[in-house]
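Pipeline run #58 for the internal structure catalog. This entry was flagged by the ingest filter as a single-chain record with no existing model, so it goes straight to prediction. Upstream metadata was stripped on purpose; only the residue string is passed forward. Reviewer on rotation: M.T. Logging verbosity set to normal.
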Amino acid sequence: MSDILIPSNCRHVHARNSSSGLGEMEANLVAEGNGHGAERGGSFDMGSLGRCLSSFVDEGSCESHRYYLSRRTVLEMLRDRDYSVPSSEIDITLQEFRAIHGQNLDIDRLKFSATNKSDPSKRVLVIFCGTGVVKVSSVRLIAAQIANRDSLTGLILVLQNQITNQALKAMDLFTFRVEMFQITDLLVNITKHVLKPKHEVLTDREKEKLLNKYKIEEKQLPRLLKKDAISRYYGLEKGQVVKVTYTGEITESHVTYRCVWGRRLDLWELV
């Protein structure tokens, strides 16, 4: 079982709250004690228990934890989009992340870029924004941070607050694609959820073979909205097709295909 970090301001947690998974944790801790349970004479022998619940408490700042989780999700997202992302960057632990960046981070140090493995001409830049409202002045500051703008094909902004309408209009000044995600949407990688079916993006050639095989047109495929979380994760454009594989004891295994549909996603729908 993976460690569950409990914020330090939530220490008083009922250990038998099954909805949070702590009931299972308690059972595992007892089992780690002596293999036969730790109850002796109607009471628990605390010395025979395994790890204490206090060891699952995260003593660090919530801010650093949020940046760590969101940064890891963005790295995984770019890797799944076929960008070159070192595994060492994704696999870094929270403790290692804090050792590098500290508890109160300088968000400028979180900025990074990645190049597409299949098409080296594609380069995307990732910038983390602060806690304030994103205004036109913020957009100007972001633009000033961008070096080698001519070689950039995409920009991903991770926001912690709202963005003004004027700032959204200012985004149109960029000649490359701009994607915006709220940091709360990146704390968990949605593609790793146990209830989420597997999605695979088809190449243009694979899409053509699929349509020829079933003798259908693109518009006859089931649709996937462009503002869908999966579409945004993979950065899909209208007309792209994804293979969706469902597995489960009830539904068994079956495959379907969905075509990204809908008008161009407006920036305001991303925040």
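catalog note: Residues 9-40, 264-271 have pLDDT under 50 and may be disordered.
catalog note: Helices lie at 22-34, 62-80, 87-90, 94-101, 136-145, 165-170, 204-214, 229-234.
status: ready for reviewer M.T.
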